[in-house]
Structure formats: structure tokens, C-alpha cells
Amino acid sequence: MIRKLACAVSLAALAAATPAMADHHEESDARAEVFAELPYWPGYWVSEFQAGTAIGGQNTQVAEAIENGEPIPDFMALRGADAPWTEEGLQRFADVRAISRGRKATGWGFPMMMNAATPLQITITPEQVIIINAYNEARYIYTDGRPMPDELDMWPTTYGTSVGHWEGDTLVVETRMVTTPSDFFHGAPPFSEEAVYHERITLEGDRLVSQMVIEDPVLLTEPWEVEVAFVRDEGFDRMIQFDWDNDRTGFDGEYNTIEMGGENGTAMLLPAIDNVLEAGSAWEVAWSGPMTADGMSVTPEGHLLFAQEQSNAIWRLTPDDQAFVEYPYVLGAGAVSVAADGTVLAIERGCTDPGLNSLTCSQPSALMQLGEQRRTIADEFGDGSSLGRLNDVHADGHGGAWVTQGALWHISHDGETTMVYQPEAFTNGVITSPDGSTLYVTDMRNVMGITLDNGVRGETSLFATLDEDTEGFGGDGMAVDAEGRLYVTGDAGIYVFAPDGAKLGVIPVPRRAITLAFAGADRRTLYVGAMGAPTPEGEDWVPPGGERNVAMTVYKLPMLAAGPR
Amino acid sequence: MFVQEHIMRILMGLAAATLVASAPPSVDAHHSMAMFDQTSEVVVEGTVRQFQWSNPHAYIQLVVENEAGNPVEWSLELGSPVYLYARGWRPRTLRPGSEVRVRINPLRNGSPGGAVLDVTDMDGNAVGSNRR
């Protein structure tokens, strides 16, 4: 019954719609007739003297003309070198060229997209013509009979406002309200926003020819007539559009250049490690300087923190490589650790640095809580002796921390100190697994695992060995990722161990790394602090007075693995 | 050198000596080719660290051993991917770890970079193609 009713309703709806549909058919037929009369310019159109561009961007037509002793084609006439500029126009043309060195851009803009090698596609309909290039730069030219909008309805844009009509097979276009083209793209002419661009575009055999006349009452002495033409270059089968986001144009003082990769030792091939590191990844320099960047941790928003002993400060390093002092007056800042609740703990090494020659002060080392509730958690062992030159710190999440200094110690929130592990050689880095069930500590080239059950220590066993290190001081700073993998800095680089201790690989680092942390909003950037740094001249910094070299470089690496949140 | 001469010819009419070092954009490149020494060709051999399939230019980041045996990363510039595609190149034509030989016009300033002329594998087989 319901189905019958539904059937009847839909028939009625159809009957009611019939007269309107008849009108529509007539309209469609009329439109189809107009459409059939319009030219059809399929294909991928490349500026005439730039067809055949080689893979490196070289203009092969120019090269051939030189070889054959023929005149060099003016392959980019729209640039405006031959335009009838006023004196003011000439000055602006020169000004734009003078500041164009190393300038970056995000596309061609109008009118230059009409004279570029970047292919154009032209879609013609009765109502409009769309000209679009491979950088998604589009011109909408309305051919439905509308007039140019009133000046009050327009504002200047990169591609302007275009209205057109057909005179036979010639598309006649007028474009106004174009922002000064050289503001968008430095290789463009500096026409004023009062310029009017006239184009007459016709297919002549296999060439698409545009006769342009550009009027600019501000900067041209008379209308400038210029011809640009296009041919179909080979090999294109579809428009492949994606962002213009890797402009590496630089300037070296005399010429443009390519912004280089591989500086400060980062020219190295890194191994792919499943779910950890992708092939083709590279270290980048995030910070470098003549003082330390040690004992790293991460803020809740994902910014890196590092301790700098010589400036008595904890520094913050943002994802865009801006560094500033986050916590000043941390005497001999050695390491920092942010607990899951955001509490910031740090080690003060006091006046214990043996390498700077001239320290004569006597302030003690201490475990500090920083921030508004700044306090000294401990500055002596239970027997009243000095904590000595504290090395690394890892907050325990209960207001206390594990610290290394010869042995591994636990310092509770009220300052009680307990020895946790007596090493065979010496301890250095300390960290817990993300679930808190294992405490890791380095003992030179060994990494020890200590089980934790609600903070109560269980068994201690050998977790892993840095088997590619044969000299040097072995393991130093450590980090874990969200999956429980352990990352240990050694001579060979960063050792990556699975939660069961299996070695997954070693990530080489440009310099000897001593500390590391995952940071970034998604914790997928691995930062390492490594010993040594180049001067602006590119030579490694050497302290002039023979004191210990504390220069460091912070490198960062995009990771597949993410640090715990 | 020919492109630079051409540029100078264009610029001379503008009576501005400061313009000589700058240049118009040429061809597919969105910047001048004057930054490359087109009278000189260098062949660099090494291992691809990264193939940047990107606009406005693609780049081959090639790790090359220098005379002292140290790795140096070269930044080798190609045209835009839409052109590379038309010449038979694809985003994975080069992969990290590929060993290739690249003929280039080097950067004038001596930095490890250049404009690519052609690329072959270590047996001399063309990678992609250079012209249509």
C-alpha cells in the first residue's frame, strides 16, 4: 500500500516537472549550439620559446641559437624589459631587479603565467574561459556578456578581474585590478594597479598567439604592444598540481645560489629502521654555540629544554629553532627533566666544573625544582657530604628524581637520598620506560635495566650493550619513545633498542651525541646535543685559552617513532 | 655564459649597473640560470640521500665523497616535477640509496650544487630522460 502511494506521488511529481524540463531542453540545445561554434584548444600549452626545456631547467632553444649563431629568442618578453616605461617606471623596474636576489615566490602570478614554461590548460565554455597552470594559478574570464564590474566592486588581486568575448575565433579579454605583478613574483614587471591588460588570443595553426596591449597611465608612456605565443610541448598527459613549497633560492652576495643541505656534518646517509626512521631522512642543525646544550627534556607543548652550565640557565628551543633562556639563575645547570605533571626539575652543578680552570667558588650541587614553586630538593647526601658533580636527572613523577653521580641515586621529594645501583664502571644517563616499569641506567658500554613496581625496585639485569663502541666513555643521555624503545647516545651514534633489549639499529650523528629528547607538538622530532660546533667561518671552534671545549651543536631529525606524551 | 650575456643585453637598456648580478627568470626555472656556470660541466657520483619531488624545483640530494674521503652533500637542481614527468621522470625514479652519476653545470660560487644536465646509473644507463 505504501509502495503504491509512493509510486503515484513520484508520477505526479514527474508530470508537474515536464513543462520546466522542456524549457530546460530548449536552453540546453541553444547552449549546445553556441558551444559547438566555439574554438577548442585542447592540450598543454607552453610558452613558445621555452618548449623543450631540459630537465635541469635549461632553455635548449637559447642554447641552439647560440650554437648556430642565430639571434637569441626573447623567451620572456612579458617581463617588460622593452616596455615604454616612464622615468618612474624605469626606476621601479630597476628597484625590483635590485631586490630580486634570493627572493622567494609562491607562483608566477598574472601576467607572467602567460609567458612561463609552466604549461597552461585552457577550458572554453559559452559562459567563461578558464586558464589554469600547473601551479593551480587560475584566470576566470567571463564571456557571458556581463560588463566589467564597477570599480567600487573590485579590489586588486594577483590574477585580476577578467571579462571577455569572442570575435570569431579570437578570444578578446580585458583584465583590470591586478596587484603590482612584481609584488607577487620578483621576475614580473612592476605595473601599477591602474594598468589595464588587453589580450586577443587566436589559434594560428599549431601556435596559440596572444596579442597583448598593456596600458598603464602611471608607468608607461604609451600602450605597450607585446606578443606571446604558446605551443603544445610533448610528454604531458594531465595537469599534476601540487604546492610550490620548496623554493630554495638563496643569495651569496654576488649570485643567487641554492640553499644547501648537509651543513655542519649533516651530509650523511642514515639507515632506515622499521617504524623508527624513514629512508632519506637527514639531520638538520637546530642550534649551535660555544657553550653546552646538555641534559635535554621536553615541555608539555613540545618545546625542547636544555641545560647550559656556563650560562647558569635552562634554555628553551622552539620547533622553528628560536632559542631563549627559560629559567635563568640555575647555577651550573647540568640537566633538566620535566615530569608528566609538568613539574620541572634541574640539576645545579654549582662550582664543580673542572674544565673551566678558574672556578674558585664553593656553592654546592643540588637537585632543584624550578618554576613558581622553586626550591632546593636536596644539596647533600644523608651523611651531610656534597652531592658532587651531578650528571643526569630523570624526574620520578612524585616530586623526586633519579640522578647519576658515580652511582645511580634516588632523591625523594623531601630530599632523602638512596643508592639504587653501584656501577662496575660509571653511570651517566638515566630514564624510565614510558609505562614506568623499568628504570634504565648506563654503566659505560652497558645499559642496565632495573624493574620498578609502583616505585619499588626489583631486579637489576643487563638490558643491552653498546656493541659498536670500543673506545670512549660509552653510553650517555637516553630517551624512550611511546612504544617503549630505548635510545642511547654512544660513540657510534644513537643505539635503538626494542623493549626486549634487541638492537634495532644505530643512527649515526654528525658529532658525538651526549643527550637527546623527542620534542615537537607530535613528539616526532628527535633532538640530540652533540659535542663541538663550527665558527661562522666553518672551522670547528677551539677555545682560545686552552680551557675545556664546551661548544655544542643541537641537531634534529624527523622520526617515524614518537616520544611519549 | 650565454644566458648571462643575454641578460646583460636585456639589462643594458635600463642603465642600472646594480642590475648586472641579478637576472630575469628563465625558462621553467623561476630564477635566472646565471647562478650556474653553463660553460663548465662537472660529473658527480654518489648516493642519493633524498629525491625532493617538489615545486618550483625538484632536487637530488646526493652524498658524494670528497678528495679527503669525507661525505659532502650536493644539492642538484632540476626543473619542476610537471616537466620532469613529461621527460619520463617519476617521484620514485630515484630513491634513497640509489647510486648515480650526475652531469651538471656547477654553481658559480663553488658550493656543492648545480643544474642537472643528465643522470645515469653506475652502468651508464640513462635515468629518466633529458629531452622530449
TrEMBL record, chain A:
Coiled coil: none annotated. The keyword Signal applies. The keyword Mitochondrion does not apply. It comes from Aurantiacibacter gilvus. Residues 300-529 form the SMP-30/Gluconolactonase/LRE-like region domain. Keywords: Hydrolase, Signal. This is SMP-30/gluconolactonase/LRE family protein. InterPro entries: 6-blade_b-propeller_TolB-like, SGL, SMP-30/CGR1_Lactonase. It comes from the Bacteria. Residues 1-22 form the signal peptide. It holds the Pfam family SGL.
